[in-house]
Design goal:
The protein is an alpha+beta fold and about 170 residues long.
Length: about 170
């Protein structure tokens, strides 16, 4: 009889523990999704919902080869933009939980509307599928074509005729 009661209590403890872990992970996931949109700034502290902090012995953030338990947006660990991380939580019950997240770090300097003026327009060969180019003086060097048709072309700014072209291997 005592063994049956013990097994029943143990099963309830395990069930409660599993549901608490799921609650922690769900809470962290909801919070992370909301904060990914809102974003952080350098110097901000990363806070977690009460459901997480009340049940956590420790929280750390992994960045692949680096890890920190300091929950502050620090340029030593974060860059502007999306930072893919893993948040590790050691619960008070001894479980290790982890969740992948994106921490979006925004600039404190607001974006500015820039003005510009078109000072000249130059024609180009509309048959060229230019994927990138470099301008050196009045000479343009460009990568042109799709897989199997790629070549490097050279032409004068404003011209629609190539001065030179070099076909690349078919794999490019």
């Amino acid at each position: 009889m005592k063994k049956s009661i013990f097994k029943g209590v143990l099963a309830l403890v395990l069930l409660a523990s599993c549901s608490k872990d799921k609650m922690i992970l769900d809470s962290m996931n909801e919070y992370n999704l909301a904060m990914e949109t809102k974003g952080y700034h350098f110097g901000d502290m990363i806070t977690f919902p009460k459901e997480v902090t009340d049940n956590a012995e420790s929280i750390s953030i992994s960045f692949g080869d680096k890890e920190t338990a300091i929950l502050k947006i620090d340029p030593a660990f974060f860059t502007l933009g999306d930072n893919a991380v893993t948040i590790n939580v050691r619960t008070k019950s001894g479980e290790n939980l982890s969740i992948d997240a994106v921490i979006n770090v925004l600039s404190k300097t607001p974006e500015k509307e820039l003005t510009y003026e078109v000072v000249a327009e130059y024609p180009h060969n509309a048959e060229n599928f230019v994927q990138g180019f470099e301008l050196e003086g009045n000479t343009i060097y460009g990568s042109n074509g799709q897989t199997g048709e790629s070549k490097v072309i050279k032409y004068t700014l404003g011209s629609t005729t190539n001065i030179a072209e070099t076909k690349l291997d078919d794999e490019y």
